[in-house]
Amino acid sequence: MQSQCPPPGAPPEQRNESAVETLDRNWMELLQELRVLQPGVQILAGFLLTLPFQSRFETLDGFQTTLYLANVARAALVSSADRIAKVALAGIGLLSVGTSALVSDAAAGRRAGLTAGAVLLTVLLILLVYVPSRLRRQATERK
After folding, report:
1. How far is CA 29 from the centre of its chain?
2. Contact residues for 15 (Cβ-Cβ < 8 A; gap 6+)
3. What is the pTM assigned to this prediction?
4. DSSP string covering the chain
5. What's the average model confidence in pLDDT over 10-27?
């Protein structure tokens, strides 16, 4: 006899998963939704960029033209979101390094502060720069 799968949206205890597994699943679902969203936004942005070359574009009134330009600006922001997210992540990393260095410096002295900052910076560089670039390089070598 097969066990039945719980319905979508069922509480974690019915899904037989821990709180951490639920968070992991939710995170992966969010990432998948973002992956699906990106091509749609790119198509929409491409469509918006072709509109001024249509003959009826000249018949738009002031409100429609303003709305069009606002949509083009938003589409450009969405397509730049990857770069913005990377810059924000770098800022968060540097904030973490600085905070770690400051707390360690105040609690245990300058050498401990510099060491803590350097260690955290090294860990972040490995996890956020080296590992992804190595995985990307391995993926391209397999193709």
Report:
1. 13
2. 6, 22
3. 0.51
4. -PPPPPPTT--HHHHT--HHHHHHHHHHHHHHHHHHHHHHHHHHHHHHHHGGGSGGGGG--HHHHHHHHHHHHHHHHHHTHHHHHHHHHHHHHHHHHHHHHHHHHHHH-HHHHHHHHHHHHHHHHIIIIIHHHHHHHHHHHH-
5. 78
